[in-house]
Amino acid sequence: MKSLATRLAEFKEQGFTVFEGVFDRAQMDRWIARYPDLVERQTPVGAEKPTLWLSSVVEYEPWLMLPAVNNAGILDFAERVLGPFVQLDNLTFMAFPSLPRAEAEGKAGGWHRDIWGWVPPGSDYFAPLACNAITYLQDLTDENGPLRVVVGSHREPVMVPADQRTAPHAREKLIYAKAGDVIFTHCALLHAGTPNMSGKLRYFFSIYYNRSWLRYRDNHSGPNVAKIIQLAREKNDRRLLRLFGVDELVFRRANSGFQVADEEMWDQWIAEDRAVLKA
Ligand SMILES: O=C(O)CCC(=O)C(=O)O
Questions:
Q1: Could you tell me which residues are beta bridge partners of residue 192?
Q2: Pocket lining for ligand 1, CB < 6 angstroms
Q3: Which pLDDT band, with edges at 50, 70 and 90, does 1 fall under?
Q4: pLDDT tens digits, residue range 126-163?
Q5: Which residue has its alpha carbon closest to ligand 1 atom 1?
Q6: Domains along the chain with CATH numbers
Q7: Residue (of 115, 92, 30) closest to 64 by Cα position
Q8: Do the Cβ atoms of 77 and 71 come closer than 8 Å?
Q9: What does the pLDDT average to over 231-246?
Q10: Angle (deg, nearest 10), helices 262-276 and 72-82
């Protein structure tokens, strides 16, 4: 298993790192089984088309979905990258329908950088404001569509002209993730999916984390997330509280005076958070 330090070096260099086999088949099947019902519940009454891009799914299915956003290994790494400021911005659950081959073949899904990203001004590494834990619930193939990344584009102002956004990129690396792998990306990494032409649905999560002083897109104010927050309060679990937008230390930590290197400071705070956690 790669150490956090090795991963961090890789992430800084490439703009992403792949965690293999984070979620198991039984867990993924439970998520997939719930998808049609979630689509029905999130589609507005009378809408012409079903809502396929599901959001706020932790509020809809708290105990089923919490393990997707609260994986200890992923959060340990997220804290190394974002500092102990990791908040759930949004969990998107999507099943991409299969498109006709003539429409899909030879295309990329749409080159972009993610929300809270930026066009890199130069080659220095800047810690991200947000990260995407991209997860596929089936093995990726040429038929259902690999993930495409431009390695190092979080530190390079590489951009794709509007008329090339769905074309393969000369510098792309294709990632054929296995079911349950998590590709953890920097918000400024240029990437794209690939249209699905497999004849089956292509299930995917974007588990999106941002810094806890930013706004978040999911609904963390509903009664179900409130129960998770209550549980976290009882255990004094600052990390779980932060995940759902409750960070009582944010002003103190975000205004530390900056006299200790960020990552050293973060390590101290992470240790403090662990020390106060009730069993
Ligand atoms: O569909 C995919 O494989 C890529 C998803 C993506 O680009 C994203 O989550 O930002």
A1: 148
A2: 109, 114, 132, 134, 147, 191, 193, 204, 206
A3: confident
A4: 999 999 999 999 999 999 999 999 999 999 999 999 99
A5: 193
A6: 4-219 (2.60.120.620)
A7: 30
A8: no
A9: 98
A10: 140
